Amino acid sequence: MFISIFGAMESGIIYAIMALGVYLTFRILDFPDLTVEGSFVTGAAVAASSIVNGIPPITATILAAFAGFIAGCLTGVLHTKGKINPLLAGILMMTALYSINLRIMGQPTVSLLQETTLFDQLGSIWSATGIDTFLNNLLSAIGIEQLPTTWAILLVMIVVTIIIKLLTDYFLKTEVGLALRAIGDNKKMIRSLSANTDLLIIFGVGISNALVATAGGLIGQLGGFADANMGLGLIVIGLASIIIGEALFSTKTIAKATLAVILGAIIYRIIVTLALRIDFMETGDMKMITAIIVIAALVVPKIVQTRKENKRRQVKRAQQRGNRDA
Amino acid sequence: MLELNNISITFNEGTPDEKKALNNINLRLEEGDFITVIGSNGAGKSTLMNVISGNLMPDLGDVIIDGKQMVHLPEYKRSAFIGRVFQDPMAGTSPSMTIEENLAIAYSRNKKRKLRPGVTKQRREMFKDSLKALNLGLENRLTAKVGLLSGGERQALSLLMTTFTEPSILLLDEHTAALDPSRAALITSLTETVVRNSGLTTLMVTHNMQQALDLGNRLIMMDKGQIIFDVHGEEKVKLTIEDLLHEFKRIRGIEFEDDRVVLG
């Protein structure tokens, strides 16, 4: 139980980077971008192929981000210059990326099991610090038997994701970032205030897909392989993370909203992991579980809200009646 | 300074719906001019605004601002020189962003947007001072989301956002038409103050003849894509609604047909 939640948090914190990317397009730009299903794989493919070809894992991960950025920019160009509907532009790019990803890898799957990944390197530096033994001793002291082999991935990825979050927060408050946010909110206004909306959209979708591809590159290294189909259904996972985060946490400011998205991504992973532990569930049921989570996150808060309002009204009516009687 | 030379634009050319929206318009605004534009529906007022702002490309003619040819520049490039307030109070502001963020976006209108914070301590003080002039108490609500403001407040904010960077040309597109009478009066008086204090070169389209007479130093009347009447100075000061209606009948030989204009 503990070890599977631990694993869920490990991948959840990496998927959170992807969710941040999806948040940028869906919420900030109001651009439902399906490119991510392709660019996530592009990230994994570029990272894996680079590592296999002897490029240092950290450089490989940066290359993955760059590849995602280009893919996103192309979607942005299709939409702004080609005047193609955002959904269709994303689908077209995603379709094209499937072939491009196969070309990058040269085969449907690239294995990294024989290679040194970013996380392997991290692990060897980490083990010298002794933090693992300390934390695991702590855990066994409270009676947990199955212990994680390393805390490096979780703790380092928390730091990395928070750094990406803080950079995103800062960016969205810069002059360029404010203009970007206004695009999703009121295009007519921002054009009348002399912002090049086309360029901003291209850039915004690019950044979004850079984040998604980074997550792809890291997930590939975590799982030890890149596969042409690993992006399937990813957009729903990204949306699920955003919607869960928004349902559970405050989104009043940008900083709170991005935090909510990250927590949403982790909670999503944990829910799926727990759901799959139920006896009659199979791995293939994951998509259905995802759909149910999203539906629940969309519907339940509304029901709760309506109940609250009804209750408030009832109390008020009762008070009024009380006053009249008195 | 704004110059329009021989502007013509035809919609749906070559079809039964063909419409000459603007027919050889010539107009010259001097520095500090405040022109009000009236006319019935379909007279070409909005088309004129859209041609100036770059939302529409005219078939023929030049749009010259500060001596620079603008007719081929896209809307976003022109808006470095042009400030616009729309009829819809929701159109000029970004609802999910705060008052100070909206002002910061507007503050970058005639500057290059960079990767530096949009709202700084120094700017916040400046925004506060500007907001105080509106007398709506908005200076105490800098971090409130604009979506929470009323239509009148949002329109006042739009007016401020458009004018505090002092554009070469200020375009007001029936910007009080969607407000209730008291709010409309508030925005009208704010407009008067702002334009008087900053001396902005202004073009205001309105349906309200009284407003067109009260504001500005020059009035033009449009009909069927042409400027049919143009008064300024002393002559405009003495003008009444009756005069305008009479003038329209004299020129066109028919009654002014838009009730909304007369009653407004």
UniProtKB/TrEMBL annotation, chain A:
Keyword Membrane part of the UniProt annotation: yes
Predominant location: membrane
Membrane topology, as annotated: Multi-pass membrane protein
Compartments reported by the entry: Cell membrane
Keywords: Cell membrane, Membrane, Transmembrane, Transmembrane helix
Signal sequence residues: none
Keyword Acyltransferase: no
GO molecular function, one term: transmembrane transporter activity
Cellular component annotations (GO), alphabetically ordered: plasma membrane
One Pfam family in the UniProt entry: BPD_transp_2
Superkingdom of this protein's organism: Bacteria
Matches recorded under CDD domains: TM_PBP1_branched-chain-AA_like (cd06574)
Positions of transmembrane segments: 12-29, 58-78, 85-104, 151-172, 193-219, 231-250, 257-276, 288-304
Name under which the protein is recorded: ABC transporter permease
UniProtKB/TrEMBL annotation, chain B:
InterPro entries: AAA+_ATPase, ABC_transporter-like_ATP-bd, ABC_transporter-like_CS, ABC_transporter_ATP-bind, P-loop_NTPase
Short name of any one Pfam family annotated for the protein: ABC_tran
GO (cellular component) term, any one: plasma membrane
All copies of domain ABC transporter, residue ranges: 2-249
Molecular function GO labels: ATP binding; ATP hydrolysis activity
Keywords: ATP-binding, Cell membrane, Membrane, Nucleotide-binding, Transport
Primary localization class, coarse: membrane
Cellular compartments annotated: Cell membrane
Membrane topology: Peripheral membrane protein
Name of the protein in its database record: ABC transporter ATP-binding protein
Species whose genome carries this gene: Oceanobacillus arenosus
